[in-house]
Amino acid sequence: MLSTTLLRQLTDQVQELRATVDTQLRPLSSRQLNFKPSATSWSVLECLEHLNRYSRFYNAELAKALHGQNQRYNPHEVGFTWLGRKSYDTVRPDNGQQHKTIKHMNPAGSALGPAVLQEFLEHQEQLLEVLGAAKGANLNRKAVRIEFFRLLKLRVGEALQFVVAHEQRHVQQALRAATAAQSQANAPVLVV
């Protein structure tokens, strides 16, 4: 895919994620935000806290990779390495396989409040700034360390795709948790 097309597509997707969280998840009650559809699933806030933990690392890593880049790099085809393709395929929203998360990225059991939503939205603003800074940069440059094994690096373009796909995957999960919370709240109560 051409770099300009990819960046425009990713920018649109981040704006959509931000709008979804702001309009569909932010208005929920604290009880709904913390509702877990099952004992092993995450609540809305746990899904977003998981993304916040990744954003704290990847937003800074991407900004660092783009800092000082020549902003006159011509539009170019953005490719994948084997590692980049594998990473992206693992987190794609349409990949229905569940994956065990790294312990320090797992928010299960954390005491979370509405500040998680605000932090998520702030991370989206930062990501939009990173995407803006990526215009004119070489997106095929290997410069973004992988969070769980920092000796390995992804290309800038594949790291951007990984981050956005990962966010889409878990925002969809948060929306399912919200739907379950609302269904549970509307369920009839049997009084005997």
Automatic annotation (TrEMBL):
Domain DinB-like: 15-174
Coiled coil (residue ranges): none
Superkingdom per UniProt: Bacteria
Xref: Gene3D superfamilies: dinb family like domain (1.20.120.450)
Entries under InterPro entries matching the protein: DinB-like, DinB/YfiT-like
Name under which the protein is recorded: DinB family protein
Native source organism of the sequence: Hymenobacter lucidus
